Amino acid sequence: MSLLNTNILSIITFLPLLGMLLVLLTPPRAVRTIQWGSIAFSLIPLALSVVLFFSYDQSKGGFQFVESATWFPQINATYKLGIDGISLPLVVLTTFLTPLAMIISTSIEKNPKAYYALFFLLETTVLGVFVSLDLILFFIFYEIGLVPMFFLINQWGGANRRYASFKFILYTMFASLGMLLAIQVIGLTSKSFDMVYLASEAGRPFTERNPANFFGWDTSVWKAVAFVAFTIAFALKIPIWPLHTWLPDAHTEAPTGGSMMLAGILLKLGGYGFFRLVMPLFPDVFGQALLPGLTFAQVLAILALLSIILGAFAAWGQNDFKKLVAYSSINHMGFVSMGIAATGLALAPNSTVREIDAIIAGNGAVLQMVTHGLSSAAMFAMVGVLYDRAHTRDLNRYGGLWAMMPAYGAMLIFCAMGSLGLPGLSGFVSEFMVVRGAWPVFTLYTILAMAGLLVTGIYILKAIQKVLHGPLGEEWHHHPLPDIRFTEILGVAPLMGAMLVLGVYPALALNLINVGVQGLLR
Amino acid sequence: MFAEAPVTAPPYLATLLWLAPLPPLVAFALIALFFNRYKQLSATIAVVSMLASTVISFIVFFNVWQLKDLGKAPIRSTFPWLPTGDTVLNIGVGVDPLGATFLFMVPLACSLIFIYSTGYMAGDPYYSRFFAYLSLFGGSMMGLVVSDNLLTLFIFWELMGFCSYSLIGFFFRKPSAYRAAVKAFMTTRVGDMLLLLGMAYLYTQTGTLSFHEILHNEEVLTRLAETQSAFGLSAAAAIALLIFGGTVGKSAQWPLHVWLPDAMEGPTPVSAMIHAATMVSAGVFMLLRFFPLLQAAGEHNTAFLVVALIGAFTAFMGATIAVAQYDIKRVLAFSTISQLGFMVAATGIGAYVAAAFHLLTHAFFKALLFLASGSVIHGVEHGHHHVSHAAHGNHGSHAAHSNEEHDGHSMHSDASHAHDFDPQDMRNMGGLARRMPITFATFLIGGAALAGFPFITAGFWSKDEIFADAYYHGLVKGDGLATLVFVLLVLSALMTAFYTTRQIVMTFLGQPRTEAAAHAEESAPSMTFPLIVLSVFALFIGFINIPKDFPVFGALMGDGAFWLKNYLASMLLEKPEAPPFNAVPVLFSIAVALGGIALGYAAYGVRPLTAGQTDPVERLPFFKFLHNRWYWDDLYRIIFVRPMQAIADRYTDVVDRGVIDRVLEGGYALGARVTKSFAEFDRVVITGFSDTVGRIFRAAGDWVRDLQTGQVQNYLLSSLAMALVIIVVFIFLFQ
Fold it and tell me: Which of A85, A339, B63, B236 is deepest in the core (most CB within 10 A)?
């Protein structure tokens, strides 16, 4: 067991890779074996990460289960892993969502072997991002993660999958190229890629101690370049308005399981990047003026506000069920950005933001990442269930399906209410905390954000109404749609359970997140 | 009356408080998950659970109803819920005098409505689902009542919003039903957003959301009153106004009243739940909870002013609209809006006890009126069914008619019966007193209470209390606002008595105006039993707060006079000035009640309407304006709904595709042009690299050539260009 004790993070991260290898060794015709074998195998990282969750010492805080090994001494890159209260919930979310997305994906008939292999690869790369404490390692996982997602969309996606997959990979690659540059500059400046060291007083890049003078540009210029590069990369991933236009295409065209992972986890890489890199490395920038009279934090808050409001309006305007759900992500992730802006502002020197407000906003933002992961994955799964039967996503062609699919209807209402942020389910807690945290910091934006929350209600009710209510759509009279199957329930019910548990007792996750956010702010 | 010695409540009460909302919530889960196929079982579980909740609540109530100082030291039980840095936000349950009175009213009214529903909903295909929602509804209201903090109150508040949405839209195939459901949810959500902000504000200022720690705490209240906020308001006033926003939505006050009349699209028991025991009561209940905050903001502060004006205006407007409606439930709906306006206005002039008192009595008589109107509709339906069967030569077939008929769960109902007949239209009724005696008698009691018939109805006592306060502050002490409130409320009360009389006469007296009315039949005992119980309360619940100096009655009550007032006294740190007994407002109260009834009887009772005859109110100059509800709905459609819808419909095409994607594509195109010059530079400087990249470049070009969208190629080109830039930079950096 000593190996498990000292290397548990490596084991969790690379176990899916072993799963991929096993899938590749299975004959392609053994479809059931591949499917259910993969699902069963993916429960191992889940179990281990749950163990991790309960073994993390909350009273101690900080990075735990740290592993460190020499890796690339020429450029000072090390193989360093570790988790804290911010990354651990996201690790659990990843290992939790993967089996569920795999269950939902059992309806995929085209080349399941390659599909499940890619899924495992995706899981490893995402977990790698969350546990990495070295910038180079972080970037490698971050970039490799694009490959399986690209193929999942490109090969198993909908009608417009090629356009969507290219748009997805080019947008994100474009953004991460800048990040790569920034990482290199940081490495040259601070002579290290160790994220813990870089976040410390001694290691922070672009300070007097660690100046950057290349090409005749001075430290402040490079700092701005690096900051902008990081911010754009992560803002695009979240995505923050107006960098969001890749999302509706990618999410809509991806296969159901892929959409669940995209919305559930990949978007969180952006928010996580802000917490893990942007805030610790550039704490003072949040308070600096970006535009006349506006600090960076304020600009971020305004863009978050626009994401909340315009994302909601855009979702309301959709007649494609899946696109509606896709746009809802922009709306919900706006609260993550809002929380980040409020927390970040507290880091700035001479900030007037009270620590308690920053902590509540930060807790809310991290929890919102988790809860959005649950609710958006559930919603995409429900869209997929319906699409598998009706072969259309056009909301105007459904109608009155509740009579035909009572269990599906009840579950859809539950998931939709989770997405709406109904109190009692987890989305409410995180949104409330962001609103509470942002209120004293960005009072006006918080008030305006309520308009977005209002429209959130409208598009959610629109979806429910168009699918379930009203007279039965003409074409379904002679083409009865079967109710949700047991396998599908198996894929969605755990998400519903998690939404309920976190909604009723959020401290389960928040005790941990609180430790992480406190660590960030002190 | 009150226990003198410091009586300590039994320790198990806190546990009971935790348990009080649980049975219906568990019932919801059980029905939804396991028993949704077993109709009778589902109904039984729901009714039993609500009764269990009632028993628990009554144990609590009868343990605390004589504790004089309960408000100073409420029974509470809390636990940490939300970690926030080094501190933590606690949530929990508690009972104080205000909560205790609700612990009596809410479960009792809910239980009766549940029992009634077993009869009313019989035959509905989604019978189990109905009881599941109803249980969640009842459980949520119980949770709201026992909450000792604003956060859990808000959670249950929103859950109730969800339940009302689901139940108003219960007949989900019917477009009018789901539209009403969405309207209810969205309109109340406007108020809820304000409430959410108020909660965030309050939490920011005080670091807690516990009612007791904020509202019974001199120091906190003073600090809130002294903190400045925007628009010249104190923080106390600003928070109070934001929280009042929630009340305006939930308790259907102008300008967010528009959802409530449409909410009658739901089955009638749901209307009774919404209008009496739960939804709308919750709004005023919360406002009363935050009364100390209003007080802290100062006697004549903006918050009090806004509350009083909105309440009085709503009371008046609701009453005028109710006069000009034909739908039996719609009349009641507007009367609810109007009566809630009474309570809100009372709160706004500082008449805390009177508002709470009217809230309690109204809950009983309005539940009674709605259930009785449901019985009327049921009876007329029955008659209509009977008649249409007879017309088909099927005389005497008393086939169990089901709610599928009138409520739209049958897919064929619209097609097979030419459904011009509206069983809720009072013009189609008349003479039902003889056919439905129990319903008539109970409706009469409920109507008398609503009209404020002197002495023998609860409505008289509570309305009189409001008048007494308004009269005292306005005409005795010379406060202009209270005077205005008094005038508006007296006028509203007059109209209330008038339209109630009109409703009773049109429905029950005279000759039947349709065949259906002539063949209506009395409802089953499961429906009439709750009516009888509720009418007892509609008559006698007023005796919990008889003024001490009231002639005859005050003496009769002895120590029991002003029980509610004395009981609630410990809720407030600063007691509002209580008016001494004054006969003038009492006489006003009696005069408007009897005058309105007399007017109504003169217009309708002396010569009852016959079939086809024009209703006298149609001759009123403003009839159309009133009948169309002052055109608020139409106004909102034009200034809010349509523009927002237009933005939503166009946003994606105009902004996302039209602007953002264009700009980004333009950037890529530019990048592609730069690439070409770069490629030249490249070939000269670093040949090896450019060869490799060039090869990838060409291969990629070939790959995407067949793609229809030329832009993809551009993307790829420019992206590779970026890669090239980076590589060049690296070569320089790493040497």
Answer: A339
Residue B671's pLDDT is: 66
Interface of A with B in 479-508 (CB under 8 A): 505-507
3-state SS assignment for residue B149: strand
DSSP state of A214: B
**What's the confidence (pLDDT) of residue B404?**
41
* Among A351, A305, B189, A297, residue whose Cα is nearest residue B197: B189
Tens of pLDDT, residue by residue over A329-377, are 999 999 999 999 999 998 888 888 888 999 999 999 999 999 999 999 9
If you measure CA to CA, which chain A residue comes closest to B661?
A245
Cross-chain CB nearest to A440 (options B204, B645, B719): B204
In chain B, residues with a C-beta closer than 8 Å to the C-beta of A170 are 715-716, 719
Share in percent of chain A as helix, strand, coil (round to 5) = 75, 5, 20
Alpha-carbon gap, residue B676 to B383, rounded angstroms = 86
Side chain identity, residue A407: A
Residues of B in contact with A468 (CB under 8 A): 172
Of B194, B652, B733, the CB nearest to A184: B733
Res. B135: pLDDT tops 80? yes
- Per the DSSP assignment, residues forming a β-bridge with B210 are B149
For residue A434, how far is the Cα from the chain centroid? 17
If you search the block for the tokens 């009632």, which residue do you land on? B54
* Neighbouring C-alpha atoms within 13 Å toward the C-beta of A3: 3
What is chain A's mean pLDDT, rounded? 89
Contacts of A470 in chain B (CB under 8 A): 172-173, 175, 178
Complex-level ipTM: 0.92
Q: Are A409 and A402 in contact (CB under 8 A)?
A: yes
Give the residue extent of every domain in chain B. Answer: 1-190+256-278, 352-390+421-627, 635-734
pLDDT tens figures, B355-374: 999 999 999 999 999 999 99
pLDDT in tens, B300-328: 788 899 999 999 999 999 999 999 999 99
List beta partners, residue B75: B95
Inter-residue long-range contacts of B322-326, CB under 8 Å, 24+ positions, other chains counted: B322/B495, B322/B496, B322/B499, B323/B495, B323/B498, B323/B499, B323/B502, B323/B617, B323/B620, B323/B626, B324/B617, B324/B620, B324/B623, B324/B626, B324/B627, B325/B627, B326/B425, B326/B426, B326/B427, B326/B615
Q: Which of A385, A393, A390 is nearest to A410 (CA)?
A: A385
Q: Please name the member of A166, A356, A454 whose beta carbon is closest to the beta carbon of B715.
A: A166
pLDDT at residue B419, rounded to an integer? 55
Q: Which of B229-238, B390-399, B485-494 has the lowest mean pLDDT?
A: B390-399
Residues of B in contact with A320 (CB under 8 A): none
| d(C-alpha A354, C-alpha A33), whole Å | 55
Burial class (CB in 10 A: 0-12, 13-18, 19+), A249: buried
> Percentage of residues in chain A with pLDDT exceeding 90?
52
Tell me which residue of A310, A510, A323, A308 sits closest to A421, measured CA to CA: A308
Q: Where are the domains of chain A?
A: 283-522
pLDDT value, residue B412:
35
User: How far A493 CA sits from the closest chain B CA (Å)?
Assistant: 12
Going by their DSSP bridges, the two strands B75-84 and A294-295 should be labelled as: unpaired
DSSP state string for B338-378:
HHHHHHHHHHHTT-HHHHHHHHHHHHHHHHHHHHHHHHHHH
pLDDT category of residue A259 using cuts at 50, 70 and 90 = very high
Whether residue A37 lies within 8 A of chain B, CB to CB, comes out as: no
At position B537, the amino acid (one-letter code) is F
Q: Where are the alpha helices (DSSP H) in B290-427?
A: 291-296, 302-323, 328-348, 352-391, 404-407, 413-416
| Closest-approach residue (CA) in chain A for B140 | A424
C-beta atoms of B196 and A450 within 8 A: yes
